[in-house]
Amino acid sequence: MCNAGGYPYGPIDSMSDGEIESTLSQPARDHDRDSRRAAPYAQGGSLIYMGSAFGERMPLPGVSVYAATKAALVGFLRGVVRDVGPRGITANERGPARPDRYRMEPGGRGPC
Fold it and tell me: Which of 6, 13, 73, 102 lies 20 to 30 Å from 91, alpha-carbon distance?
């Protein structure tokens, strides 16, 4: 299970370059590191990533940078599943408050 995130809350123009850079880089770095460490042990298993509905829709103001990290996770996951799938490893995203059309299918298979 890979879960990374956190964000400064507020309008994009109120955030410093450092806040934005930290928010964007930390989840990508952690998901990459965790995936590389887990994959050798996951033969026939699954890599599971915590996503968010915010990666696909934006119900609130002030969380644009956080939403960017969750949208990037979807792209990362699509690449990971191509890398590890041939070894019998699945990779799926789970997320709270996801709309019905984005839920995983029974058995844990996702749209990737």
Answer: 6
Q: Which class would CATH give 12-102?
A: alpha beta
- Single out the catalytic residue among 7, 41, 66, 102: 66
- Rounded distance between C-alpha atoms, residue 63 and residue 66, angstroms: 5
Tell me, what DSSP letter sits at residue 49? E
**How far apart are the C-alpha atoms of 103 and 92, rounded to whole Å?**
11
Tell me the domain boundaries of the chain. Answer: 12-102
Q: Is 102 in the active site?
A: no
Q: Which residues pair with 93 in a beta bridge?
A: 49
Tens of each residue's pLDDT in the chain, 112 residues: 666 666 778 888 998 999 888 888 887 788 888 888 988 988 888 888 887 777 777 777 888 888 888 888 888 888 888 899 899 998 888 876 544 444 444 444 554 4
The residues with which 91 forms a beta bridge, in sequence order, are 47
